[in-house]
Amino acid sequence: EVQIHKQRLIQPIALEVTPDERHLLEEHVEVFRWNGFDVDAASLAGEGNVLITSVPFSRATTFGKDDALELLSLLEHGAPVLTQQQMTQASQALAPSASAVPRPSKVRAMFASRACRSSIMIGKCLNDTEMRRVVANLAGLHAPWNCPHGRPTMRHLCKLFKN
Length: 163
What we know:
This protein is 44% helix and 15% strand. The protein has 163 residues and is an alpha+beta fold. It folds into 2 domains: 5-118, Ribosomal Protein S8, Chain: A, domain 1 (2-Layer Sandwich), CATH 3.30.1370.100; 120-163, MutL, C-terminal domain, dimerisation subdomain (formyl-coa transferase, domain 3). Strands 1, 2, 3 and 4 form a 4-stranded antiparallel beta sheet that branches.
């Protein structure tokens, strides 16, 4: 399971933002918190740089200024954002991996990598019950044809028997 933790910073990270970006950040500060970034409220309300006081980390993956700016850019370009109530419900149901929450690319890559590592690998023998469970689970997915990295999750049976 992927868990994102917060690391409080001794020296806050200063983000240079435009007035529009400041307003957007202020409007969606919960999205930043939900991604592990804490923003200094006084710097957000004032003028000049906005200060990031905590950054996310997970195992060996650390995040920084570029990831916060990428998240701001995602919001700026219209990434769908959940309401506070929806985020609370999503966090209870899916923990930090709720797919409807805007995420920096590093977080999405981390989720994809960990999902693949825990999946059924090629060559693994499955019994009848396991095969039925896999097919039933695939039927419930929005895009079952590829893993998050783009690797195929299925083979056409006709191609297997062409030899």
